[in-house]
Amino acid sequence: xxxxxxTPGKNVPGNTGVVPAPxxxxxxxxxxxxxxAIGLTVPMGALVALIQAESxxxxxxxxxxxxxxxxxxxxxxxxxxxxxxxxxxxxxxxxAASAKVSVSYxx
Length: 107
Fold this sequence. Notes:
The chain has 107 residues and is mainly beta. It has a single domain (22-106), classed as Sandwich (Jelly Rolls). It is 0% helix and 36% strand. It has no helices and eight strands. It has a four-stranded antiparallel β-sheet with strand order 1-8-3-6, with no helix packed on it. Strands 2-7-4-5 form a four-stranded antiparallel β-sheet, with no helix packed on it.
């Protein structure tokens, strides 16, 4: 099944570095402390975020309920979640101590 990060007609190794239109870079954020549920600081005009869990797995929810260390969707450490939902609604928490979240925003 093709990944939406793939360039049409071209396989992009690792699916990194390619963002679907709109694709204007709008900023970067690193959240170094996710020991309690925390949201994003979204730049104006951002429509898409590439979200990477670093060091440890991270859990997220975007339904108005805070994630916990044992509930919510998981982003495995080292993987990227391409997120196109409501950027102001998504929140994160570490599944294990020392997790970080890195985010690149596009609009």
